[in-house]
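Here is one chain, start to finish.
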Amino acid sequence: MHSRVMLLSILSVLVARSATADETIQLVDKTKIVGTLTHYYDGVLHVRLPSGTTIQLPAAKVQQVIFKLPKPRGEFATPAKAFDRLRKAALKGDIAGYVDCHSAYYQMFLNHQVAMAKPGEFAARLKKEWSAVDLEVVGTTQKGDTAVMKVRRKKGSESEEGEMRFVKENGEWKMILPL
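Its structure:
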């Protein structure tokens, strides 16, 4: 039962990333269904079949879901490249690009914050906050699929150091928010 709960929580995160490739869904009776997982809510998977029809599958009938993940993108090959992309997106007010630089789990939270603040206001705040400071990467420590980047933040004559944390997802380094 615990593995089913884990599968369903991972599933909800992956659905939030709007899957573009077909998935293979194996049911408890060993039947296999190929389609695109479009939604998961309240224990029901919504799957769009190649014919365009959408079916609903109770999670209790699903044994496993096999995802075909996209190839990792070069702009996320290292924590430094991911940070550079994050900074550029923030300075341009590119909300989609900014959200994409975060781990799938945190993308849900950020999308909710954007919706609550209104996209235009959120983009303006991003641009203002990121352009008001000078950020310098001091160093990065990598351990397996996690990394900690030390960043020096300068604003006028004031300077302070902080940490940004990254996790590797599908071969791409993504930022995680501090807790």
